[in-house]
Specification:
alpha+beta; binds guanosine-5'-diphosphate; 19 strands; 5-stranded antiparallel sheet; 6-stranded mixed sheet; 11 helices; Rossmann fold
Length: 420
Amino acid sequence: VDTPAPTKTTSSAPTDSTTAAINTEESNGADPNVRRVVCKRCHEMNHHHRIAPNWHRDVADDPEVLEFMKSKPSALVLHVLDVYDLQGSLLKGLSNFIGHQHRVILVVNKVDLLPKDVHLPRVATYVQRMMKDSGVLNIVAMHVVSARKVHGVRELCADLMALRRRFTQSPPDIYMVGRANVGKSELINAMLRISYGGTQYKVTTFPIPGTTCDVVEIPLQRFRKALVPYTPGEAQRAGGEVIDPGTLYDTPGVFNNYSLAKYLKPDELKLTWPKPHLSVSTYGLKCGQSLCIGGLGRIDLQEGGDAATGRIMVSVFSNLPVHITQTKKANAMFNRLAAGELVPDLHPPGRTMTPARAAVLPRLKFVSSHTLANENATMACADVYFMGVGWVAIAGRFKHAVIQVHSLGGRGAGIRPPLM
Ligand code: GDP
């Protein structure tokens, strides 16, 4: 957390090796005497765009990340999901860590990435349906937001404030949980921006998973206008400002070991990051053809398609390169990739492929086979998702189509009802 220091030259003492070098920076906040104190790791990310992703932590290896919530059973839990990676950002084990007394607020973040004409209440209903099967108890509210554009964040804060007000004796703490990279830190910054109108308090955000390395505790008093549930009348009666004793805990993201993004190098991952919008491209896929998505996944149309053209329509919501070819040729291309050869049509990761890199990448494997029908040509009938790197919507008018889904290692891909 960027900590305000009382004078222009002061800085707080580092607490561990990662904070060995402290950098003080001019803040954008209103108070010119406030200096941001930034740890070395955050400085590297903000100024040199450097950080090594760590994909090897998962909730199973690292239960203490969520385990500590058990000690605060009345806390509010903000479960943040990424609309770009809904399946990949679901915390399946969350119900093992929270009990009946926790109240869960679902936050679907990054909706600014979706095309402008998307009906957001439909996205909310979609996620609610998806969560029904996940076994998470006590979902009391659901918000569709963009932390980056500060869209929907005021409404979320108002809801949190109202929930905290119900506990007049001691308003509960808030736990922010979610997979790495869903935008938890960005959401905290958006809430701070609402509280202060400036950016003098800020947590570091970065496009590569693993930005937050430990639980960050932020006194809720910092969010005074946004989350502190005391009215000016109450403050006056108490003879001034009422200090909120609560804490917001920003937890380190839980890594998703199934995410296909883990096979990309940091610079490749940055290339695929949707900026500023998710790119959407539509193709016709003929029977016997395959759609390759960046050397990480593939969809084969095995049978069926439109009676007249023999095609299905596929809309790719991803920044990975897309290549359509005969399934036989696609097999040969993936074999060349596995042998460490550079296959330009599949880059990245092919762009920097070497035999050494190929040796550690898993082979393309079959995930699942699906029979689809779509009488309503204007709507997609299914999405094929590739965790961490996007999805493909299948549309077009056809009575019958058989598709096969493949991914590196045979994991992190599957089919879901259409999001749009
Ligand atoms: P955390 O690991 O959950 O704390 O994720 P961060 O807050 O570090 O965000 C990960 C990446 O997602 C960063 O590059 C953010 O700028 C980006 N991000 C976060 N929220 C949004 C959002 O609402 N819209 C978009 N487009 N990007 C976002």
